[in-house]
Amino acid sequence: MTACLTVKRVLALSAVFLALLAGGVLAVRAHARTPTPLTPQEQAVKDAVRGLLQREDAAAASGDKQALPALFDLTAFDGRAALAHAEARLAFVGAWAAARGVRWLPPLVTVRTPRIRFGAGDPPTSVQVTAIVSEAWTYQYSGGQHQAFGLGREHYMTLTQAGGAWRIAADSFTDPLDQDTRIPGPATPGGGGAAPTPSTPSVPGPAPATGRYNRAGAVRYADTYCGAAPGCGNGGLYNPGMYDYNGDGGDCTNFISQALRFGGGLRESGGWAFDRRSGEGTDAWAKAPDLVDYLTGNALAHVAARGGIAAVWAAVAAAAPGDLIAYVERGTTVHMAVITARDPMGYALVNSHTADRYHVPWDIGWDQSARFVVVAMTGATTGTGHAPAVPVFGGASSGCGIGG
Questions:
Q1: In this structure, are residues 179 and 379 in contact, taking their beta carbons and an 8 Å threshold?
Q2: What is the rounded CA–CA span in Å between residue 270 and residue 290?
Q3: Residue 197: strand, helix, or coil
Q4: Distance CA 12, CA 7 (A)
Q5: Where is pLDDT greater, at 252 or 36?
């Protein structure tokens, strides 16, 4: 019966992903305009972008490194750099799958192109594209259990055309499958293997804080507003009532604070708050290390473990949905995510912004030299949660600084 239910859940999630992909439901940030219909020339570019990225992902999933060079303009310096990144990504996802005892199934890609600008020439031989890319990835255990997850990325691309075919001459984006930004060279996943089936969390911590944290509500908020990744709700859009820090240092901590406040029910304070008038969050609201310090300093959470993957492995296995993970590179906390689910074998899955993630394995994309902080929320309930509230504010904001 359990195996049957697992298959049904996988099929249902896959159906959601396919529906999202077929409909092209993608995140256009809250400030984006309603797109105008594409011209035939623009549609051809959009189709080319999708085709190139679909082939790139298919090569990464299958380990076919030889398929990559044909996708890039190798006469351009940035084209060669983009190829090197694609090769590093291929190496990482292959190594991660081998370390976790899984294999990749073919990914599915769709794109939205809010900006297409052609270069000179008739017909033009170059084009600059801003593309919101939505990817559905699936991995499979040897026993047949599947897990699908969603990724959303914003690309700034240059394509060049030769012989009637478009190729990638430059591609800038935050890659959730190769997230490390401060560690040079290809990332190598940490050791471990498949996670054990989780038990009731047993990591000791301080007494519950005054007030209650609604884990289910926080997860529901994170699933609703996680953005462009297939599986996210709200039509693939961020919460329109909140400022989007992408471009101002990253939106990951802002997103976690939203989930804690508007889904989890934690009360704002002078040190942890979002000003609706100015669109300004405090440091604890918008910066990862400050949020960890605020939560632990106010008995709203405790650090269950910190260190490399081996040091935190058991704590992640014991963590519950609604708990948090902070990601550290060279001593700097650069990213945060919230645990939202587990795969059929018990592996912890997370949601985040920058880049957008829906039910993604918690460590994928992070090098073996990365460090992690497992933040266990205290004073928590396990109720069913409520629909996330949509706050209202007006104004602009400065950047969030370090903290993804």
A1: no
A2: 13
A3: coil
A4: 8
A5: 252
